[in-house]
């Protein structure tokens, strides 16, 4: 199984929590992809979000985040949300720390390896870090950035299709 892990802000939604152009179309196309073994891919989100002051604050912060996903109309692609959404809020570290990627993959399926994950973000530093961990990663051109590996979200579809069929070695 492969897991496609997206960043949210400035990757799938804008600063007003509206889907970026092509986000819904891209998510619709990739949600039913199958890996090289015929298994459905899992879509997930990894986000840096409000850090709690106490453990009791974690659930309300997660619900606030889920509300953003519902408002943007993309929650449906990441259900069940508790399994497919990983926040710095609950992990205690921000991207690109290995722990947040590992936690996201473990929530989806504990035996997934880092190289089973494909991370997609507009942040080039996070792309470099994810690749250093052994993950596959795609840099989407963010607002104000001169370039990315893809310019538009819909351009992700053929790349994702290729990567989910690709079985990297375990090194």
Description:
The chain has helices spanning about 25-30, 60-70, 80-85, 90, 100-110, 125-130, 155-165, and strands spanning about 5, 40-45, 85, 115-120, 135-140. The two termini are about 20 Å apart. The model has no long low-confidence stretch (mean pLDDT about 95). It has a five-stranded parallel β-sheet with strand order 3-2-1-4-5, sandwiched between helices. It is about 35% helix and about 15% strand. It is globular, with a radius of gyration of 15 Å. About 35% of the residues are buried. With about 170 residues, the protein is α/β, with parallel strands linked by helices. The longest helix has 15 residues, at about 60-70. Strand 4, helix 6 and strand 5 form a beta-alpha-beta unit. The chain is built from seven helices and five strands; from the N terminus they run E-H-E-H-H-E-H-H-E-H-E-H.
């Amino acid at each position: 199984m492969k897991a496609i892990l997206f960043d949210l802000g400035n990757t799938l939604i804008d600063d007003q929590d509206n889907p970026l152009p092509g986000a819904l179309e891209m998510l619709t196309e990739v949600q039913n992809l199958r890996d090289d073994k015929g298994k459905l891919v899992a879509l997930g989100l990894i986000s840096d979000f409000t850090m709690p002051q106490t453990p009791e604050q974690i659930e309300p912060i997660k619900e606030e985040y889920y509300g953003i996903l519902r408002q943007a109309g993309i929650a449906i692609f990441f259900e069940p949300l508790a399994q497919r959404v990983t926040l710095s809020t609950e992990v205690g570290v921000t991207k690109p720390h290995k722990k947040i990627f590992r936690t996201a993959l473990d929530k989806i399926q504990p035996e997934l390896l880092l190289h089973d994950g494909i991370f997609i973000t507009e942040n080039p530093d996070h792309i470099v870090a994810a690749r250093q961990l052994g993950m596959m990663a795609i840099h989407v051109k963010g607002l104000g950035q001169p370039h990315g590996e893809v310019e538009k979200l819909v351009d992700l579809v053929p790349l994702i299709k290729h990567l989910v069929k690709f079985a990297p070695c375990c090194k």
